[in-house]
Amino acid sequence: MAEIGNAKVMNRFDLTKRLVARLQHEEAVIGGIGNTHFDLWASGRRPQNFYMLGSMGLAVPIALGVALAQPNRRTIALEGDGSILMQLGALATIATLQPKNLVIIVMDNAAYQITGAQRTATAFRTDIAAIARGAGLAKSVWAADEQDFELLVERALAEDGPSLIAVRIDREPAVATTERDPAQIRDRFMRGLGVKK
Amino acid sequence: MSEWHEIVQKVLKRSEVKLVTYVPDRVLTPLIDGIEGDPYFKAFATAREEEAVGIVCGAWMAGMRGVVLMQTSGFGTLANALASLAVPFQIPVLMIVSERGTLGEFNLGQALVCRTMRPVLESLAIENHTIARLDELEFILDRSIAQAVATQAPCAFILSPLLTGGKTFAS
Prior knowledge:
CATH superfamily of chain B: Thiamin diphosphate (ThDP)-binding fold, Pyr/PP domains
CATH superfamily of chain A: Thiamin diphosphate (ThDP)-binding fold, Pyr/PP domains
CATH topology of chain A: Rossmann fold
Largest interface: A-B, 40 and 32 residues
Strand content of chain B: 15-25%
Largest sheet of chain A: 7 strands, parallel
Number of domains of chain A: 1
Largest sheet of chain B: 6 strands, parallel
Number of helices of chain B: 8
Oligomer: heterodimer
């Protein structure tokens, strides 16, 4: 656990692989727009992964919907800093509902990287974990380094949520591009969640 | 005969639409109150309408049917969420829109945003019905919810002031 100022700058693909390696119970993962879900795609084709195309900012609400419909399945939203800044109200909704099975991971590189690395507000004075705490998500922390990230993920998967883990990441591009076939992504995800046979 | 909001609540329940998300509206208040008083439903307010669309999409993919309640100006914020999530991913997001902006509107902004609603729905080929008559309400809701689920397509129900009474100058 760290404050934003002493959180190590890590790598998105490396952290995504570390996260996926810890998923042993068919946890649902919602990958937010762009690089966030590209690296999720590159970390293995889990049927419980959903890759969002467009609808920037909606990974957290989609994950909340999954978490409410399947309260016995852990659901993880993977978002970027630019995306979460678009839909901060969702943090307040989640704080109100307190879904025990919801985990939010924010990959913060302080930039709208995919559009040309324009700086987001987190490049200045904005602290995502602090915003989430202010919204009412008490378990909102920065990961100090890779080992701390793994520990926080392990805890978030075992303990009652909701929880938010913020990580500082570098500006390496994603290592692959998701196949953009929305109907297939949705169908595979629904089968992965046992909704369709 | 039942009130419009009693019919809507009854059909939602019968159609197993358990998740009700909303950004409140004066006209929808009796419906929201009724639903929140019925433990069958999981109902709550969201900060924005597109957030509610995201939640309903996630719930559908995980096996729970949902609806978004909003007013006309709220629908005005939804073009991107519908065009990039609900429609291409083939998710039957149900929308109930309390129609402002017509039949006695007092706010010019509401009147203008109202004119964007049907063109957005039509341009995305989203099934939509304007419901003005109490005797047609149950049939339209029943059949259209079944169709949305069967065809995996969103559907919007626009509740006309002719049905609900709307919001007038005095209120």
